[in-house]
Amino acid sequence: MSLFKRIFSKEKKETLDKGLEKSKSSFFNKLSKAVAGKTKVDDDVLDNLEEILVSSDVGVETTLKIIDRIEARVAKDKYLGTDELNVILREEIAGLLAETNVGNETEFTVPSDKKPYVIMVVGVNGVGKTTTIGKLASQFTKSGKKVVLGAADTFRAAAIDQLQVWADRVGVPIVRQEMGSDPASVAFDTLKSGVTQNADVIIIDTAGRLHNKVNLMNELTKIKRVMQKVVEDAPHEVLLVLDGSTGQNAFEQAKQFTKATEVTSLAVTKLDGTAKGGVVIGISDQFQIPVKYIGVGEGIDDLQVFNKIEFVDSFFN
């Protein structure tokens, strides 16, 4: 199918394949049991497939769309063998995701007309937020961008220290204050420093608390307001980091955070350690927010730009 042409480099594709291995293995083990003894894609096979997709954390809404597409394919082609199901799934899910104009990128880029380009990163504690920031800083630096980090998660000393470790590792400047400092003050100082240093990209870490949405909303709104005193239209991007290994809980976090603040992009992490990689398909389909990055390993280069065609190809190939 013309959708599936090589986009990523061989090395990047191998990393993606390896990162999705657990999800792929789990899915196809279930699928092989569902079609055992069957030669034709019939109602029983479709019912089993629906159950497999939901249990693989694709999500109910997206699963129903996929089943509808396959039913239409069966009706059109009259006869489809179960040996063709893998190819059909691959094509129909790629077709579904291709209907939205997001997830087409292949490289780490920022708009050239925004300098500095300010990214505010949000997400609950433990999802890999600080690690994602560090890996983003590394990728942008490798592409020749000057990056400045801001440690505005001042509620945990560990968060500040962890971001410092990443800043040292990548070799980028960081603006930090003591634990308990005003997060908005850190964000303000970071933008001032970034402008002075002629930075291309500024990445601001924020606290990962969601137990009180009102407080979270007020805090993030204050950070935005204070940043705009330095860079008028900051932040240019609000990146929500989700832990892919939590499956449906990642959907719930996405819903809660999008209510609390205006999220403009998503990163789904920890896909290499889970069989719940199908969650990326569901999130990519259901939210009117692009999945921009996926984490498929622990290495510094194992954060990838999400490309939906390459993702589906790796998952079903």
TrEMBL record:
Source superkingdom: Bacteria
- Which keywords are on file for this protein? Cell membrane, Cytoplasm, GTP-binding, Hydrolase, Membrane, Nucleotide-binding, Receptor
One of the entry's Gene Ontology molecular-function terms is: signal recognition particle binding
Q: Tell me the residue numbers annotated for binding GTP.
A: 123-130, 205-209, 269-272
Q: What is its EC number?
A: 3.6.5.4
Q: Where in the cell is it found?
A: Cell membrane; Cytoplasm
By its UniProt entry, which InterPro entries does this protein fall under? Answer: AAA+_ATPase, P-loop_NTPase, Signal_recog_particl_SRP54_hlx, SR_rcpt_FtsY, SRP/SRP_N, SRP54_GTPase_dom, SRP54_N_sf
- One Pfam family it belongs to: SRP54_N
Q: What CDD domains does this protein's entry cite?
A: FtsY (cd17874)
Specify the SRP54-type proteins GTP-binding domain's residue ranges. Answer: 290-303
Assigned GO CC terms: cytoplasm; plasma membrane
Catalyses which reaction(s): GTP + H2O = GDP + phosphate + H(+)
Check the record and name the SUPFAM superfamilies matching this protein.
Domain of the SRP/SRP receptor G-proteins, P-loop containing nucleoside triphosphate hydrolases
Q: Which GO terms describe its biological process?
A: SRP-dependent cotranslational protein targeting to membrane
Q: How does it sit in the membrane?
A: Peripheral membrane protein
Q: Which family does it belong to?
A: Belongs to the GTP-binding SRP family. FtsY subfamily.
| Quaternary assembly | Part of the signal recognition particle protein translocation system, which is composed of SRP and FtsY.
Q: Output the PANTHER family linked to this UniProt entry.
A: SIGNAL RECOGNITION PARTICLE RECEPTOR SUBUNIT ALPHA
Its biological function? Answer: Involved in targeting and insertion of nascent membrane proteins into the cytoplasmic membrane. Acts as a receptor for the complex formed by the signal recognition particle (SRP) and the ribosome-nascent chain (RNC).
Q: How is this protein named in the record?
A: Signal recognition particle receptor FtsY
What's the gene? ftsY
